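>> received
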Amino acid sequence: MQGFTGERTLMRIHIGERDRHGGKPLYQAIVELLRSRHYAGATVFRAIMGFGASAHLRTDRIEVLSLDLPIVVECVETEERIQAILPEIDAMIGGGLITLERARVIMYRGDASSRDAT
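>> returned
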């Protein structure tokens, strides 16, 4: 994607591992939506501990193992594209948190070793 550097918006979506949408994990549905709309990229992180509005502690510690670890989906895109997709993502999420912040992209390119050598 040429010209993607510069001021962009970082969207972080905080949800639970067990959250679902359309019969699949919510994080997967969100990433598939972003990919289908040709967003620059998305990454999913599984946290080792956290709590949200319910104050229910979720952790990977064996003594209190949670089957619903915190998940964060991140996507960096233009402000306009993030604002355009927010209503759809909001409709997919039952409970969670979405944050936006400014990001300065200094490099965005694919791995040269993954390209065809023709």
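>> Strands lie at 6-16, 20-21, 24-25, 43-46, 49-50, 58-59, 70-77, 97-105.
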